[in-house]
Design goal:
The protein has about 375 residues and is of the alpha+beta class. About 25% of the residues lie in helices and about 25% in strands. Strands 1, 2, 3, 4, 5, 6, 7, 10, 11, 13 and 16 form an 11-stranded mixed sheet that branches. The chain is globular and about 65 Å long.
């Protein structure tokens, strides 16, 4: 669960304790409850020095293993969950394949060979929005190969969408949901940035941006059906704060591994190299901000290189999830996010929303005026 260099890391998370959802800070081998100083992760990340907040020691790091999976909540609360799509060349190619196959996995194999030979080599070396990208665009238009997915892959504007609502994400150990009426879907292992209300990236964690290839392939207007479903967003286990030992350069050079193991004996692995991303993470933060202001900050999925094409059942069908799959997303300096696949229909319903959180915090006397936090935000 934890980074390989946990001794040097400062981690932020949320645990479900006896009193309710609580903000924890992990440092120097101990798990500390900092909810009285910062009742939400949004509050904590807005402080100038979130790593220095004093808290109540709960237990040693080793005792995290003794907690039930339901104790681990996604490490974001009031933040909206945003995502950048088609940020790697290979994912752009797979989106084009989905589009041309109209979401039918049976047509994907034949289309993949044609599309890969036509644009695969050219797109991998392009800088989005550059003159060379524009020249390729015009060539592909002339050849009848242009796609809305290529527009966001090599054009000046990134695809930024809202993955899900605040508090709707699940954490480490939870079931992740795939719509029961989807027959072609996959996990999307990604690095997720934690951005404060000023638009500054304060740390990073791991996420699973579960995707329904059949829904989005039929129409890009079905993106919300493909992306925002019950339990379809997993984040965690903890946010690693940026400091001298972990910086944005570590995100840029991260290697994100994916492992899927099914109850049917099926196994699949893959790796995303963040060094191959088409747009810099800070540029994606800038585009996510656009002309808007996020008073509670936001989480930003950075996109994935992983697009599974391995056949799971009959030849040519490719990969799709089955209930019971165990999905592990890991990176040495961020730890490991582990979830079990079920359907969105069977996953526990999302019932604890913003009102429930505010009522819980108010009942614990944690929502009184906090001038030390507000003064730092105003500054």
């Amino acid at each position: 669960m934890l980074p390989v260099d946990t001794a040097n890391a400062v981690l932020v998370g949320r645990l479900l304790l006896d009193d309710g959802p609580s903000v924890v800070l992990i440092r120097d081998g101990k798990v500390n409850d900092v909810t009285r100083a910062a009742p939400t992760v949004a509050d904590l990340l807005d402080l100038d020095d979130p790593a220095g907040v004093a808290g109540e020691p709960l237990f040693e790091i080793a005792q995290l293993d003794q907690l039930q999976p339901t104790s681990f909540l996604a490490p974001f609360d009031l933040q909206v969950i945003k995502a950048a799509g088609v940020t790697f060349a290979i994912s752009a190619i797979e989106r084009v394949i989905e589009e041309r196959a109209r979401g039918d996995y049976r047509a994907a194999a034949a289309i993949r060979e044609k599309v890969e030979s036509a644009i695969g080599g050219a797109i991998r070396s392009l800088v989005p929005g550059s003159d060379s990208a524009e020249r390729l665009k015009q060539t592909l238009i002339a050849d009848g190969l242009w796609s809305q997915y290529l527009e966001v892959a090599i054009g000046p504007y990134a695809e930024i969408f809202t993955k899900t609502a605040p508090l709707a994400s699940v954490g480490w150990g939870a079931d992740i949901g795939v719509r029961s009426d989807s027959s072609w879907n996959n996990p999307e292992p990604e690095v997720v940035l934690a951005v404060d209300s000023r638009g500054q990236a304060r740390g990073a964690t791991l996420g699973n941006d579960v995707n329904l290839r059949d829904f989005e392939g039929r129409s890009a207007l079905l993106l919300s059906k493909a992306k925002d479903n019950n339990a379809s967003c997993a984040i965690g286990p903890f946010i690693r704060l940026f400091d001298d030992s972990f910086t944005m350069d570590d995100v840029r050079n991260a290697e994100v591994d994916l492992e899927i193991r099914g109850e049917d004996g099926f196994a699949l692995s893959g790796r995303s190299l963040m060094s191959e991303i088409s747009r810099d993470p800070e540029e994606l933060v800038r585009q996510a901000l656009s002309e808007h202001h996020y008073p509670d900050g936001f989480a930003l999925f950075l996109g994935t290189l992983f697009a599974p094409t391995d056949d799971r059942d009959e030849p040519g069908r490719g990969f799709t999830h089955k209930p019971g799959d165990i999905v592990t997303i890991s990176a040495p300096r961020l730890g490991a996010l582990v979830n079990r696949v079920t359907t969105s229909q069977l996953a526990p319903a999302w019932e604890f929303g913003t009102r429930a959180l505010m009522r819980n915090l108010a009942g614990r006397g944690l929502l009184s005026a906090r001038p030390h936090i507000q003064s730092e935000i105003n500054a």
